[in-house]
Amino acid sequence: MSAGAYEMKGPSAFAGGSRRMLQLTRILAVTEFKLRFFDSFLGYFWSLLRPLLFFGVLFVVFNEFVKFGGGAKDYPLLLLNGIVLFSFFQEATTRGVTAVVDHEALVRKVQFPRMAIPLSTVMTAVFNLALSLVVLLIFVLASGHAPALSWLELPLLAAALVGLACGAAMLVSALYVFARDVQPIWEVGMQALFYATPILYPIERVAEHSTTAAHFLMCNPVAVVIEQARHALIDPTAPSAADAIGGAVWLAIPIGIAIGGCALGFAVFNRTAPRIAEEL
Amino acid sequence: MTSIPAVQVDGLDKTFRLPQERIHTLKERALHPLRRTRYQQLTALRGVSFSVDQGEFFGIVGRNGSGKSTLLKLIAGIYGADSGTIRLRGRMSPFIELGVGFNPELPARDNVLLNAIMLGLTPDEAEARFGSIIEFAELEEFVDLKLKNYSAGMHVRLAFAVMAKVDADVLLIDEVLAVGDAAFQQKCFDTLEERRRAGTTILFVSHAMDVVEMVCDRAMLLEGGRVVEIGQPAGVARRYNEINFATARAAAMPDWGGGAGDGDAKILDAWFENADGRRVPAMLQGEACSFHALVEFVRSVERPALGFVLADERKRRVFAANTQTARIETGAFAAGERVELSVHFKNVLAAGRYFASPVVAHSGPGAKVMDLRGEMVTFVVTGGHAADGLVALPHEVRLQRIAETERVG
Predict the structure, then answer these.
(1) Both B73 and B204 in a single domain?
(2) A271 touches chain B (CB under 8 A)
(3) What are the average pLDDT values for consecutive 10-residue runs of chain A, which has 280 residues?
(4) Cα–Cα distance between A160 and A259 in angstroms, integer?
(5) For residue B27, is it within any domain?
(6) Do B287 and B225 share a structural domain?
(7) Could you give the CA distance from residue B337 to residue B287 in angstroms, rounded to a whole number?
(8) How far is A171 from chain B, CA to nearest CA, in Å?
(9) pLDDT at residue B23, rounded to an integer
(10) Are B374 and B259 a contacting pair, CB within 8 Å?
């Protein structure tokens, strides 16, 4: 009660302190996670089953009928690795689009650090990612691969992907408040990105046709993470991200895109945060 | 009570830009790239200044759209002000509504934790206070029930309980205590009173003037985004009723036309006056007041009867008076002559809204009406307590204990 007088400045991305923001991020994420699986028969197992079922379908189609693997070693694992990582990014960002608008009641009635909203959406997806990665590792082990030191790269890669998803979620959630077409645009964009990322096919297959095309595809930061994860977890003989893009120097492009995207997302969200409550 | 201002607001302005046609899609923007969105300026608050002392229970009243909620949102930090400053001392409650973020699909337990953290507790504090929150809400048996299966009353009890256990030095409450049964409402007010005694400052928005008068130390009336009056709740409540029903009456004016009757006389105007002879749309209970009607005779008339009927909101006739029952000899009137009728009485009516219908009639049996204006004047009685019954008769309440011995005898 002895606190000195201070001025109320109005809402912002961080008003209320970063500790409060993290606490809110966590509780919002946990609530969202509970809500999504609360009433389903299999509960949390769905978060594991979903990428697996998707994997199953793609595996049957592309391994048995359309031979996309092109003799790549461990094609199923390549497929699963790509699906798990890409699904995370897709889920975090497409849910991120509507996140702020979905929390309208809170935004309009409570003062809290607005940044907690897009971050909580990504965090919910992280819970799923963590479970899925465990499944991926089990599959990798079951396929006869021994754990290697290079597996330690995985947390770093996952962290980079989470950071990228946070930046994207901030950007799209803020833009969606002002223009509702962000949603369909982002969904179509994600679909295009899915095919432009070496998930269904190994990047070597593209390089066989055109190295330029392969280098171009690897400018996508998500592709870099997926390819590097494949190299580290599944097949050390597969090209690393640096190899695939044509040299470690070239990695500056996707890294630059990732950092630039995150900075843009952060800046846009930070700028719009004070006005979100009025614009909803 | 210390007089350190807990909330000090200076020259607060807030304008909303409302787009006339909302451009929500990029296609529209792409098709009409040059068309600037036309905005409508909506000024919600202009130069609002006031200060609330620590430990004060401060009421904010005003009609819909007068800027009450915008003001609370600015103080809470949900909106940013265009200009002006808000200085606070102590921890501000960051919310203006109870039960924010309650999710019907989750059980009470999850909702309480979520809500408590939203309202400013840390997760550990929320966990620790969970028991006392549920106990306060009297919902121990329903902890694992999903909120969608709660009744409205249970919902409000839970929401209020969370608020009651949240730490804040300044509480903002926007119209929340209307729900719940009487016993729980009492509990709510007791809780607020308790917190106030502990030094919590409470800003309370309400339309219920009797509640404002009952609980607030001071009140502020907003109208059109400006402060109209700050002071004693009773005075502010009276002013509120004046503003509120003055406009209600103005809106009702055009409907006067064609009263029933043969037209030998015309009622030109009717109004209420207070003891000072000032026209008023509202009156405190217990004061002397009078009803007036201005009548013009169209044709010459012998011994007319003039009077009025007062009915309450449920159309029940509460009071009637006229020259005939008062045995007043009215005499003869020529065409074009005017007369003012006045009925003086002490206002013992229960708080509420009343409608006065003046009437002019020919004398004698059958009493043919010359002019009658149904519900021509609206009149509001304020004050008193949330009284029951039609009238507040002058009275005295006594209580006497009967000794055991007398009863046996």
Answers:
(1) yes
(2) no
(3) 65 77 91 80 75 85 74 83 94 94 88 92 93 90 88 94 96 92 94 93 88 92 95 88 87 94 94 85
(4) 10
(5) yes
(6) no
(7) 32
(8) 16
(9) 56
(10) yes
Candidates A3, A11, A23; nearest CB to B117: A23
Residue of chain A whose alpha carbon sits nearest to that of B110 = A31
Place of tokens 């009433």: A39
Between B93 and A233, whose confidence is greater? A233
Domain that holds residue B80: 5-93+168-242
Report the residue of B39, B51, B73, B115 to disrupt the A interface, i.e. the one with the largest count of A CBs within 10 Å: B73
> Looking at the domain assignment, is residue B35 inside a domain?
yes
Tell which of A6, A7, A8, A38 to mutate to test the B interface (max B CBs under 10 Å): A8
Which of A35, A106, A275 is opposite residue B106, by nearest beta carbon? A35
If you count residue pairs, one on A and one on B, with CB atoms under 8 Å apart, how many are there?
Answer: 109
Here the CATH number for the domain that contains residue B231 is 3.40.50.300
Q: Is the dihedral of CA B194, B197, B203, B205 positive or negative?
A: positive
B285 in the same domain as B226: no
Q: Which two tokens stand for residue A64?
A: 């048995």
- For residue B253, is it within any domain? no
Residue B251 lies in a domain: no
Is A111–B76 a contact, with Cβ atoms under 8 angstroms apart? yes
The domain total for chain B is 2
**B224 with B265, same domain?**
no
Residue B400 · residue B270 · CB < 8 Å: no
Are A247 and A254 spatial neighbours (Cβ–Cβ below 8 Å)? no
Same-domain pairing of B70 and B213: yes
Which chain A residue has the Cα nearest residue B78? A111
Q: A278 at the B interface (CB within 8 A)? A: yes
